[in-house]
Automatic annotation (TrEMBL):
PANTHER family: AMELOGENIN (PTHR10039), NACHT DOMAIN-CONTAINING PROTEIN (PTHR10039:SF14). Residues 66-100 form the Nephrocystin 3-like N-terminal domain. InterPro entries: NPHP3-like_N. This is Nephrocystin 3-like N-terminal domain-containing protein. Keywords: Membrane, Repeat, Transmembrane, Transmembrane helix. The keyword Membrane applies. Pfam families: NPHP3_N. The chain crosses the membrane at residues 6-27.
């Protein structure tokens, strides 16, 4: 009888350890899934196109009447306007290309 009781006690202890391991595994798995989801969201946010509205608004606020009018008489612009495609405006950083828009 004592031997049976000891065996039942050991089996019960083993079952409790298995339950603890199972719950720990579930908790870790949920944490891992949340971490993985957070990481995916960070990467997706990083890959998304930037919101250009603020930059456009800042450039538009700096624009004054008559800005960029000279380009309308430029031969390259006139040539482009006759058969529009991509218009490439090249210039040094800070030279005002954005404000021409």
């Amino acid at each position: 009888m004592e031997h049976s009781l000891l065996l039942v006690s050991r089996v019960f202890s083993f079952i409790l350890v298995c339950i603890d391991i199972f719950w720990f595994s579930i908790a870790n798995n949920e944490k891992d899934e949340k971490d993985e989801k957070d990481e995916k969201e960070k990467i997706q946010k990083w890959l998304n196109a930037p919101d250009c509205a603020m930059n456009f608004q800042a450039a538009d606020d700096k624009r004054t009447e008559g800005t960029g009018q000279w380009i309308l008489n430029d031969p390259e612009y006139i040539k482009w306007k006759q058969s529009p495609s991509t218009l490439w405006i090249q210039g040094k950083a800070g030279s005002g290309k954005t404000i021409l828009l």
